[in-house]
């Protein structure tokens, strides 16, 4: 990214050091796709100016197995409308990823994350700091042989009339491990806010492990909130049903896994990324 | 012509002996109704033939043409030409009916099915069963009424075209219109390439699907076989007369 010729960039798109700024003049319906590969950049900031509408896709690919820390910051100014998709494939045996997002008044963030890493501790913080800000978070985490991924997702309401919604799906095969913590926090006085969480986990066998912890901390009466969490092994009866139609055990498992992911994958509106996510998931399971 | 041959089949579930020696031969072109009181092993026969992991075959044989069914995995049995329409079809969220059926059709035919051809045939079949137009895009049985689920089983049957199908209480819980639709569709399938076993404890479905053979199953065995005259007898006097005629004792108990 740093090698880009700045003058060749579309109007309103600025890149300086580790910061990509979408200025007020930026108007594009096409997605901006950035590939951060092999650690040429482990810090990245995105600043979206007032009222900008944008789609940003980040592919984070890293084949190095040594320790690494990634820092990502999103700064969404008032009334900005952003779709942000991040796909991470990090093969480090000890990776940490910190992502923070600040949402100003009336901004809207649709965040989709795909976590297909080896050993990763990820902390995602979404701060809704401006009145009327909304953030919708969807994540997919897939662990297979010897993979251990932890995803800590915090959505904190610092302003009234803020809306947070998260759906996190984990799939673990072989001896893979996934820990999903979803935390929603509505501070006192943040009236009219809404916090919803759905955490789902499915394991393909008994050696795999998924923990899900949905947590809501609410210090205000005038809010709406809800959470749901399910973890389960693939049901024997469902597998029997699919196999009784001639579908092999492997294909039946794949269909069921796609079933879990479909609602999230359907929200990815970039065909190439969609295929890429499905391919990565299939390779793992 | 294909033949499903069952000999002296004994089946246990969770250590309990349910089937105690079932003999039955079903050829394509034939419709065998298996009737009997609740809890006598009719559904066990269906699930065991399909290879449900909870059912343990302890003795006997079952083959479809020259394939030994008991040595095959569930999906291999399906690919050999066997089909089970389930009593309680499962819901599978996130998997659309169309994706499911296309995968299944590819598996049983062993070849890629052209998409357009598939869609046309599938929609035609769905239309024959008077199913909702958005059916292909709905998730498999999710939010389906009881009747819709049963019709979806028949839709799968029509799409996959097995040699022999076992219909496990496909009539239970169907209203009169759905019963007629299901009955007529199955009846129209019967041919030199298709035969079926109808498991039921009501007679209503038999108004639409004419059985060539009728069997009465009691306490894990087929105790009486005959033609459609048996249906009338059961209709009029239940199963009590069987006790007297054969000199056997049994409970007309409830299913577990």
Low-confidence stretches of chain A: none
Helix content of chain B: 25-40%
Q: Return the CATH topology of the largest domain in chain B.
A: Rossmann fold
Number of strands of chain B: 12
Characterization of the model:
The complex is a heterodimer of chains A (285) and B (256). Helices cover 14% and strands 52% of the residues of chain A. Chain A is mainly beta. Chain A has one domain (6-234). The radius of gyration of chain A is 19 Å and the shape is globular. Chain A starts with 12 loop residues before the first strand and ends with a helix. The mean pLDDT of chain A is 91. By secondary structure, chain B is of the alpha/beta class. Chain B folds into two domains: 1-40 and 57-81 and 164-175 and 184-256, Rossmann fold (3-Layer(aba) Sandwich), CATH 3.40.50; 88-161, no CATH class. In chain B, strand 1 (3-13) and strand 2 form a beta hairpin. In chain B, helix 4 (115-128) crosses helix 5 (146-160). The longest helix of chain B has 15 residues, at 146-160. The model of chain B has no long low-confidence stretch (mean pLDDT 92). Chain A binds chain B through residues 235-238, 240-249, 251-252, 255-256, 258-263, and chain B through 50-54, 73-75, 77-79, 83-84, 86, 89-90, 92-95, 99-101, 103-104, 107-108, 139, 156, 160.
Summarize the helices and strands and which ones pair or pack.
The complex is a heterodimer of chains A (285) and B (256).
Chain A: E1 13-16, E2 19-22, E3 32-37, E4 43-48, E5 53-62, E6 68-76, E7 81-90, E8 95-103, E9 108-115, E10 119-128, E11 134-143, E12 148-157, E13 163-172, E14 177-186, E15 193-203, E16 209-218, E17 223-233, H1 236-243, H2 249-265, H3 271-284
Parallel strand pairs in A: 2-4, 3-5, 4-6, 5-7, 6-8, 7-9, 8-10, 9-11, 10-12, 11-13, 12-14, 13-15, 14-16, 15-17
Antiparallel strand pairs in A: 1-2
Chain B: E1 3-13, E2 16-27, E3 31-35, H1 42-50, E4 55-64, E5 67-68, H2 74-79, E6 82-85, E7 92-96, H3 97-109, H4 115-128, E8 139-140, H5 146-160, E9 164-168, H6 176-189, E10 195-199, E11 213-218, E12 221-226, H7 229-237, H8 240-246
Parallel strand pairs in B: 3-10, 3-11, 6-9, 9-10
Antiparallel strand pairs in B: 1-2, 1-4, 4-5, 7-8, 11-12
């Amino acid at each position: 990214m740093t090698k880009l010729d700045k003058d060749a960039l579309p109007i309103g798109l600025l890149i300086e050091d580790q910061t990509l700024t979408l200025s007020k003049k930026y108007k594009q319906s096409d997605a901006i796709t950035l590939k951060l590969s092999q650690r040429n950049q482990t810090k990245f900031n995105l600043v979206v100016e007032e009222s900008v509408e944008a789609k940003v896709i980040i592919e984070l690919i890293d084949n190095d197995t040594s320790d690494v820390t990634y820092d990502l910051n999103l700064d969404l100014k008032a009334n900005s409308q952003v779709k942000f998709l991040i796909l991470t494939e990090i093969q480090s045996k000890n990776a940490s990823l910190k992502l923070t997002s600040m949402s100003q008044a009336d901004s809207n963030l649709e965040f989709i994350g795909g976590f297909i890493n080896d050993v990763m501790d990820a902390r995602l913080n979404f701060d809704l700091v401006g009145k009327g800000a909304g953030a919708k978070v969807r994540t997919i985490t897939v662990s297979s042989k010897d993979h251990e991924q932890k995803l800590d997702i915090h959505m904190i309401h610092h302003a009234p009339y803020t809306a947070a919604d998260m759906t996190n799906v984990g799939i673990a095969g072989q001896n893979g491990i996934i820990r999903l913590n979803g935390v929603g926090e509505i501070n006192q006085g943040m009236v009219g806010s809404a916090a919803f969480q759905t955490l789902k986990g499915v394991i393909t066998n008994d050696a795999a492990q998924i923990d899900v912890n949905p947590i809501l901390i609410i210090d205000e009466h005038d809010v709406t909130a809800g959470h749901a969490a399910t973890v389960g092994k693939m049901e024997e009866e469902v597998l029997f049903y699919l196999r009784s139609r001639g579908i092999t055990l492997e294909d039946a498992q794949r269909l069921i896994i796609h079933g879990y992911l479909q609602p999230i994958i359907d929200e990815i509106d970039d065909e190439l990324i969609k295929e890429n996510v499905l391919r990565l998931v299939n390779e793992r399971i | 012509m294909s033949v499903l041959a069952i000999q002296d089949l004994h089946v246990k579930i969770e250590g309990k002996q349910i089937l105690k020696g079932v003999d039955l031969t079903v050829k394509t072109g034939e419709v065998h109704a298996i009737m009997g009181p609740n809890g006598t092993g009719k559904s066990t026969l269906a699930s065991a033939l399909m290879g449900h992991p909870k059912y343990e075959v302890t003795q006997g044989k079952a083959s479809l043409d020259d394939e030994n069914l008991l040595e095959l995995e569930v999906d291999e049995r399906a690919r050999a030409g066997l089909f089970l329409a389930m009593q309680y079809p499962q819901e599978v969220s996130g998997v659309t009916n169309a994706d499911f059926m296309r995968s299944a059709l590819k598996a049983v035919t062993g070849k890629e099915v052209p998409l357009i051809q598939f869609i046309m045939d599938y929609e035609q079949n769905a239309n024959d069963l008077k199913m909702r137009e958005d059916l292909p895009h709905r998730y498999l049985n999710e939010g389906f009424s009881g009747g819709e689920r049963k019709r979806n089983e028949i839709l799968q049957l029509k799409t996959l075209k097995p040699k022999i199908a076992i219909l496990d209480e496909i009539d239970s819980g169907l209203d009169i219109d759905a019963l007629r639709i299901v009955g007529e569709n199955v009846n129209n399938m019967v041919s030199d390439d298709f035969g079926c076993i109808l498991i039921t404890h009501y007679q209503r479905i038999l108004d639409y699907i004419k059985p060539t053979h009728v069997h009465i199953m009691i306490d894990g065995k087929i105790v009486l076989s005959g033609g459609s005259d048996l249906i009338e007898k059961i209709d009029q006097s239940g199963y009590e007369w069987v006790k007297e005629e054969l000199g056997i004792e049994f409970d007309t108990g409830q299913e577990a």
